[in-house]
Amino acid sequence: MAPPEGPRAPLEFGGPLGAAALLLLLPATMFHLLLAARSGPARLLGPPASLPGLEALWSPRALLLWLAWLGLQAALYLLPARKVAEGQELEDKSRLRYPINGFQALVLTALLVGLGVSAGLPLGALPEMLLPLAFVATLTAFIFSLFLYMKAQVAPVSALAPGGISGNPIYDFFLGRELNPRICFFDFKYFCELRPGLIGWVLINLALLVKEAELRGSPSLAMWLVNGFQLLYVGDALWHEEAILTTMDITHDGFGFMLAFGDIAWVPFTYSLQAQFLLRHPQPLGLPMASAICLINAIGYYIFRGANSQKNTFRKNPSDPRVAGLETISTATGRKLLVSGWWGMVRHPNYLGDLIMALAWSLPCGVSHLLPYFYLLYFTALLVHREARDERQCLQKYGLAWQEYCRRVPYRIVPYIY
Ligand SMILES: NC(=O)C1=CN([C@@H]2O[C@H](COP(=O)(O)OP(=O)(O)OC[C@H]3O[C@@H](n4cnc5c(N)ncnc54)[C@H](OP(=O)(O)O)[C@@H]3O)[C@@H](O)[C@H]2O)C=CC1
Ligand SMILES: CC(C)CCC[C@@H](C)[C@H]1CC=C2C3=C(CC[C@@]21C)[C@@]1(C)CC[C@H](O)C(C)(C)[C@@H]1CC3
């Protein structure tokens, strides 16, 4: 269907050229990281020691395993949910409904994996399959994004996202045209954002821990910390699953290659980079340092969770006693903006907490290599860019009230610094 007339959102990521470059660069970066983590020098910058042939990338066993994983997560998504939540109001004033059973999917997956392992499933063999698994995940992301692009051609105009209707096929394929592509109750974006990739990430971490125990007798303290911190992060995301319904990805961004690849390939295979690194590059870690890193993670988590929960509670019910006493600014839309509490400290306190946790995930890997700090570097860039996008949208939405908020809360992410 033709895109709507009228003002269009400004092009992001350098427009069609930037999008075309990212289509190649993102998968290339992911494979570079996978190869670097298993190589001796583990260099973040510079070419990998050797390039894999097709036989190292393509494996029918990996394809089967990958399809079984997607099938399992889809089946768990379709199980009866403890709650069905309503999303934000859409342009046509309707609200979509979403099953809240992500945490249940995580627990059931853990039980199934536990059963499998006790029946002889070799979890420690998974790290050897990361390359072909990442390859089929990338192929799936391309094919799936093509399907999403075609599906959007026949979707009603009201179902399209503001950012993905430039009319340029490469740009729209990358950013995603349809806001909430679904087949019946199955919401592709919501499913992909929280299930196969996020749960896959902790499963890969666990497999790396098991492999380390096989190789060295027991997992290292550093490996335990990385596994524990990231499991907490994923468990928290699934426990607070409903909160994702107010994030930018669900309310504003279309579902195209960027999110499809990000969700199902980038997250599991690059977010597990620290554990991949530790398997081949063991790092000594004493108890005092480990305790300090735990404290950093706890501070980050406290800020991240406090800020996200405060905003969610406020958005759901501004007269909830937990947020009713906070200072606010009224906006012309009828919605208010918090100007005290976490959201009075900086304009994105949740990003600050997330970044502090990112640092804690890298520190167990020591300071001899830059590679395990990739997540921290990438994530800083992602959040700075995301913050700028969000500010633009908020200024458009709230106008003068947003300017007043920026005046009262001048720092974006880090108090007195940025
Ligand atoms: N690990 C990862 O790879 C990633 C993690 N994240 C994490 O996801 C979480 C969600 O991030 P994201 O969706 O980017 O953005 P936020 O959750 O920060 O949401 C931004 C929205 O919050 C509302 N808002 C902003 N300021 C205020 C205020 N003062 N009072 C009330 N509402 C306000 C506005 O929406 P409105 O007014 O319409 O409600 C704004 O558009 C973050 O914790 C982030 O760190 C994000 C990206 C990647
Ligand atoms: C591949 C590209 C460079 C960028 C892709 C970005 C995506 C990987 C991220 C965009 C927003 C995300 C969120 C989470 C994971 C990463 C992606 C998909 C999130 C689910 C992680 C867990 C958090 O608790 C959260 C708040 C639920 C996150 C929501 C945003």
Automatic annotation (TrEMBL):
- UniProt keyword Endoplasmic reticulum present: yes
Enumerate the Gene3D superfamilies for this protein: 1.20.120.1630
Q: Does the keyword Acyltransferase apply?
A: no
- Output the Pfam families linked to this UniProt entry: ERG4_ERG24
Q: Which residues cross the membrane?
A: 60-79, 100-123, 129-149, 254-273, 285-304, 355-384
How would you describe this protein's topology in the membrane? Multi-pass membrane protein
Record's keyword terms, sorted = Cholesterol biosynthesis, Cholesterol metabolism, Endoplasmic reticulum, Lipid biosynthesis, Lipid metabolism, Membrane, Oxidoreductase, Steroid biosynthesis, Steroid metabolism, Sterol biosynthesis, Sterol metabolism, Transmembrane, Transmembrane helix
Q: Where in the cell is it found?
A: Endomembrane system; Endoplasmic reticulum membrane; Microsome membrane
Molecular functions per Gene Ontology = Delta14-sterol reductase activity
Metabolic or biological pathway: Steroid biosynthesis; cholesterol biosynthesis
Primary location: membrane
Q: Which GO terms describe its cellular component?
A: endoplasmic reticulum membrane; nuclear inner membrane; receptor complex
Q: Name one GO biological process term.
A: cholesterol biosynthetic process
Known EC number: 1.3.1.70
**Known function:** Catalyzes the reduction of the C14-unsaturated bond of lanosterol, as part of the metabolic pathway leading to cholesterol biosynthesis.
The record, for PANTHER family, names: DELTA(14)-STEROL REDUCTASE (PTHR21257), DELTA(14)-STEROL REDUCTASE TM7SF2 (PTHR21257:SF52)
Q: Which family does it belong to?
A: Belongs to the ERG4/ERG24 family.
Protein name, as recorded: Delta(14)-sterol reductase TM7SF2
**Native species of this protein?**
Papio anubis (Olive baboon)
Q: Taxonomic lineage per UniProt? A: Eukaryota, Metazoa, Chordata, Craniata, Vertebrata
